[in-house]
Description:
Elements lengths: L14 H4 L1 H8 L6 H20 L9 H13 L6 H16 L11 H6 L10 H8 L1
Helix pairs in contact: 2-5, 3-5, 4-5
Amino acid sequence: CLILPGDEAVGFAGADAAGVMAYARNALFENRHSGLRHHLPGALLQLRQLATASDAEFTALNHTAQQQLLQQILSSRAQPFASVFEQLIGIALEGLLCEPVHGGNRDYCGWWLMGYQPGQGARSTAMADEYER
């Protein structure tokens, strides 16, 4: 995935392995993202047109060229679709850091990247009992 690529140096397999793509597909069907769903086809068409201008399909471009195209979109505030890509980045981050029950953060990999170890929240059973009330 372009937004959250894997990095062997830190032991992160990437967005696909973390369940981010599954989370994003589900999130796009929520009411809070209805505007994004409406504008997404146009934004993807714009991305395809920019890639075609560089004589290649977006997915066929190398990572650097893909980053440059996305940066071109994000830096041009005059283009209404820059906000679409900003929202997609936000959804990807949600998918990486959410509770795994929502479909992302598979095997808690997002939390491990942040240095959080699942289950360390309550320091004592008294604190946990207080939270339950």
